[in-house]
UniProtKB/TrEMBL annotation:
The protein's name: CS domain-containing protein
Record flagged with keyword Endoplasmic reticulum: no
Subcellular location field: Cytoplasmic granule
Region (Disordered): 1-25, 85-115
Biological processes, Gene Ontology terms: protein folding; response to stress
Biased composition, class Basic and acidic residues, residue ranges: 92-108
A GO MF label: unfolded protein binding
């Protein structure tokens, strides 16, 4: 693209020349910049005594070097800014990753019951139930046990003493299907039925330490005892739960995506790339 320029040259005033201004009209073709410079130099040679001066070539080259140095400085500054921006973005990504790793480290490895061993009690779980074992002094009578199980809260302890467990449950339970018993007068055993029997609890209480549910391992023996239909349903729920925790599609979504791919392959003129399934 040609670029029209309107250039005015101010002549310095000296004893030989009067002060005059001349208009320089030219078109710059970016593909031929030297042609423009030749026109400019020709104009200057006609309207001034610049090229009669022995130092003209030196002064022009000095101007060229100055412009090139300025361009190099600008390019270097731009590269420096880009490098700093990339470094900043990398640091932000590494910081975010470190934070995720730190959060992950906070989550504890579950015990053999897929729960956690605490200082004064332990708990475990299956997809359907939560079990709690609270050791007490040998010879404790059941009349001394305090166990209050509500849909969203739990309180366990001995009468006249501070509660051993007291707080809001991680998720609701079916209070009417929950039971407790005193085993051999030395431990309180609690069985609670989960309301939503498709999720692994990260903790017993909302205020308690969390386990890494991705490391939960259901007992194979219990799964093997189920009929094939129930076992498939449980395995599907376990798979979907892990997929959900990792932000990946569920088994149903994967199946729908595969069907969509087959349909698109059979109908190449139709575009369903933005289709989402829920």
């Amino acid at each position: 693209m040609a670029i029209p320029l309107d250039y005015q040259e101010d002549q310095p005033h000296d004893q030989h020349h009067s002060s005059n201004s001349f208009s320089f009209n030219a078109v710059l073709n970016p593909s031929n910049p030297l042609g423009f410079l030749k026109s400019a130099f020709n104009f200057v040679s006609q309207k001034s005594d610049l090229f009669k001066n022995d130092s003209a070539e030196k002064e022009i080259m000095s101007s060229v070097r100055s412009i090139k140095e300025k361009m190099k400085a600008q390019e270097a500054d731009q590269k420096k800014r880009l490098k700093l921006a990339k470094a900043s973005a990398k640091m932000a990504t590494e910081k975010e990753q470190a934070q995720k790793e730190k959060e992950k480290e906070k989550k504890l490895v579950p015990n053999n019951g897929n729960g956690l061993d605490m200082e004064n009690y332990s708990w475990g779980q299956s997809l359907q139930d939560v079990t709690i074992n609270v050791p007490v002094a040998h010879g404790t009578k059941s009349s001394l046990v305090l166990c209050e199980i509500k849909n969203n809260s739990l309180k366990i302890g001995l009468k006249g003493q501070p509660p051993i467990i007291d707080g809001e449950l991680y998720k609701p339970v079916k209070a009417d299907d929950c039971f407790w018993s005193l085993e051999d007068q030395k431990s309180i055993s609690v069985l609670m039925s989960k309301r939503d029997q498709i999720d692994w609890w990260k903790s017993l209480l909302k205020s308690g330490p969390e386990i890494d549910t991705q490391k939960v391992e259901p007992e194979p023996s219990k799964l093997s005892e189920l009929d094939s239909e129930s076992r498939s349903a449980i395995e599907k729920m376990m798979f979907d739960q892990r997929q959900k925790q990792m932000g990946r599609p569920s088994s149903d979504e994967i199946q729908k995506q595969e069907l969509l791919k087959q349909f698109m392959a059979q109908n190449p003129n139709m575009n369903f790339s933005g289709t989402k399934f829920r």
